[in-house]
UniProtKB/TrEMBL annotation, chains A, B:
Superkingdom of origin organism: Archaea
Organism classification: Archaea, Methanobacteriati, Methanobacteriota, Stenosarchaea group, Halobacteria
Annotated organism of origin: Halorhabdus utahensis (strain DSM 12940 / JCM 11049 / AX-2)
UniProt-listed InterPro entries: IsoPropMal-DH-like_dom
GO biological process, one term: isocitrate metabolic process
PANTHER family: DECARBOXYLATING DEHYDROGENASES-ISOCITRATE, ISOPROPYLMALATE, TARTRATE (PTHR11835), ISOCITRATE DEHYDROGENASE [NAD] SUBUNIT ALPHA, MITOCHONDRIAL (PTHR11835:SF34)
Protein's name according to its UniProt entry: 3-isopropylmalate dehydrogenase
Amino acid sequence: MTKQIAAIPGDGIGQEVLPAAIDVLEALDRDFEFVEGRAGNAVYEREGTPLPEETRELAREADATLFGAAGELAADIILPLRQDVESFANIRPARAYPGVDAVKPETDLVFVRENTQGVYAGFESDLTDDVATLTRLITEDASRKIAEYGFEYADEHDADRITVAHKANVMRKTDGLFVDTAAEVAEEMDVEYDEALIDALAMHLVLHPEDYDVIVTPNLAGDVLSDLAAGLVGGLGMLPSANVGDDNALFEPVHGSAPDIAGEGVANPSAMILSAAMMLEYFGYDEDGQRVRNAVETVLEDGPRTPDLGGDASTETFTDAVLEQL
Amino acid sequence: MTKQIAAIPGDGIGQEVLPAAIDVLEALDRDFEFVEGRAGNAVYEREGTPLPEETRELAREADATLFGAAGELAADIILPLRQDVESFANIRPARAYPGVDAVKPETDLVFVRENTQGVYAGFESDLTDDVATLTRLITEDASRKIAEYGFEYADEHDADRITVAHKANVMRKTDGLFVDTAAEVAEEMDVEYDEALIDALAMHLVLHPEDYDVIVTPNLAGDVLSDLAAGLVGGLGMLPSANVGDDNALFEPVHGSAPDIAGEGVANPSAMILSAAMMLEYFGYDEDGQRVRNAVETVLEDGPRTPDLGGDASTETFTDAVLEQL
Ligand SMILES: CC(C)[C@H](C(=O)O)[C@@H](O)C(=O)O
Ligand SMILES: CC(C)[C@H](C(=O)O)[C@@H](O)C(=O)O
């Protein structure tokens, strides 16, 4: 059955890496129909909104969405889209690849980030000119969903260790509810896990990322810790991600629009192609997902390299090399 | 004039490292009177509170406080003490020392963390069993105070660069007020600085800590980013800190009570002794502060090492070596 994929390139290098991922997907023996959606700075300038309702509708109706990258308006684009696909989990694998310079080559982690709550729930007010507040929200339902998802994910991927990240020594009621709910779910599912304070975890991840595997985290903590892990593996250029809901999902590289190199045709499409591999697995096309992943890995190890990895290959040359490996 | 110092060892290795710092301070030609204050797990067991009112009073009345370490009850001890001294700034230098294994030996950063607000303001409620909220508070006054302090600190320490960390793309009103206020203060003080999103900053710090110098941050972000930086320099064992108010201050190592080695007399007292050096500078005893810092550095470079740094020296041997260098 044809899968309809909303393809939203967005800003900057999003325009270059998304086509690369589509080329890879089209080389597989699967039936995808790609429908392009508009979003980004240029759209904002023309239409007064960076994310037209039509694009949101497209994401809501599609079987899945591929998103490229966003610039300064990222929060106005990606956060609503994550809501449109009703994603509650943001999955961010952070892995060092052979042949890619990494601060910590032994890093191989997956963040399972809660995708709807915390400070992102966004109830903010300017009480006066001088005083602003933000209401951070944690519910048992959302905490349960992310814990269940994270624990299942860990089980399916034979994770060595599950860590639940939090700051419940300070945010006693909100993160308290988050960790208590995780504890309940763990008991119901008969799962073993550790808890870690996000500050201590930030230090341990830098020192010994190899000690961790699947990390279930509240929303903002997941944002920061996954970027930290991107640093460990050599930068955001390598991190794919999935935003997964019950019936829909959106896949995007963790990197931004890279205005410094946008338009030059030299962006590294790895994170985007690996995000497409996550989409394949989301559809149950596990073998295809694995093929794409292996192809990217092989090219990263001995193929042509884009400038961010010390080479001078173009996005196209890199992508062609991936296609040859398929 | 005699300075009265509240000396609160707290839990675990706090009992070992604080006396080491006092030995160093007593070796200087200064007039300190140390008054011990009780806090910690054992106190909680005996008295039903980990931080008796008497200890809080002592900290409030003293010219400054030295704090050792706290265990699981840390939040119930250190947060009230930071309030008792009316500290608004938490200064955390993170520096790699020659001779100490570091993930990033070029790290030499100072976090200037806002010490009163954000999620630590702590207005939390369980709205129902299943829903909890926390009100994050940012005021212009507190943002102004930390920006002024951070910018002055940067100036006094000839900082190469000032970075204001935030997540104002999501926390638009609260962190928006924080960054807007920093911008106003920078204009008034004619200071140059950059802004950085905390997630991107987490990545850049891992990749290129040498690009940063003084980082002014909201409360929780400072907590997490400074621990990240501790990882970069080889662990929390090396990070001193100062909690500074208008008329009072508290100095503490960033590390915890290390129950695994507590009682063995092998704790590394560097962070505590360096915290005492920060106290010396707070009193305007800059030369003494520098002497202590130099002595610690020399010992770290070629002196006896405690087990955390790969040696087998005791806390006492290490401290004696520092005393010899003074
Ligand atoms: C652009 C921003 C709103 C977003 C977030 O905070 O989630 C980004 O940092 C990310 O992690 O994808
Ligand atoms: C113990 C805890 C409350 C504290 C904090 O969050 O400030 C600690 O992590 C620190 O950074 O000193």
